[in-house]
Amino acid sequence: MSRIVLAGIPLPADLQWIDEFTAWRVGQSVKTSLTGARIVQESSLQAGRPITLQTQRDGAAYVAPVKLALLRDLIASEEQPRSVSLQLVLPAHNGGERTFAVAWRRTDGPAIEADPIRFAVPALDGDYFSITLRLMTV
User: Fold this and answer.
1) pLDDT value at position 116?
2) Of 96, 109, 97, 98, which Cα lies nearest the Cα of 135?
3) Of 119, 117, 114, 125, whose CA–CA distance to 61 is shortest?
4) In this structure, what DSSP letter does residue 81 have?
5) Rounded to 5, what percent of the chain is helix, strand, coil?
6) What is the value of pTM for the model shown?
7) CA 88, CA 98: separation in Å to the nearest integer?
8) Which contiguous run of DSSP H or E holds residue 71?
9) What are phi and psi of 70, to 5 degrees?
10) Residue 115 above 90 pLDDT?
11) Is residue 132 a contact partner of residue 45, using CB atoms and an 8 Å limit?
12) Which residue from 35, 38, 122, 136 puts its CA 20 to 30 A from 22's CA?
């Protein structure tokens, strides 16, 4: 079974890329002039494609939850300011793999969100979490 790998951290291949088919190539800026007219400017984007990977629910079952130890590895990666991109490897639709140069995306909320599948205190390394990872191409 193929896997998703982010900066050397193996992730479940079943994490869903929820914005994979969302249009993103055209950026837009809308302003209002002093006279009240709308000024709309559009341009092609070279990078910044959103890649949001997320655990999904199928009824009462979770698809692609991660264990606490893996979640800690992801958080450690996100907490470091970087001047170079991370490598993300995703399975391709018809076999093989796709590779992207990415950075954590913090403009649409936290770069990583996690919720325990079953809440317990203290959390143990074997506990599972539902995650959302927000990335963008660079």
Assistant:
1) 93
2) 109
3) 117
4) -
5) 10, 45, 45
6) 0.84
7) 8
8) helix 68-78
9) -70, -40
10) yes
11) no
12) 38
Length of the chain: 138
Structure tokens at 115: 């919720």
Tell the residue number behind the tokens 């606490």, with chain if given. Answer: 68
Angstrom distance (rounded) from CA 31 to CA 41: 9
Q: Which residue, chain included where needed, has tokens 């655990």?
A: 55
Which has the minimum average pLDDT: 22-31, 68-77, 85-94, 124-133? 22-31
Task: Give the C-alpha separation, 46 to 48, whole Å.
Answer: 7
Dist. CA 92–CA 56, nearest whole Å:
19
Q: Strands 50-54 and 86-91: what pairing?
A: unpaired
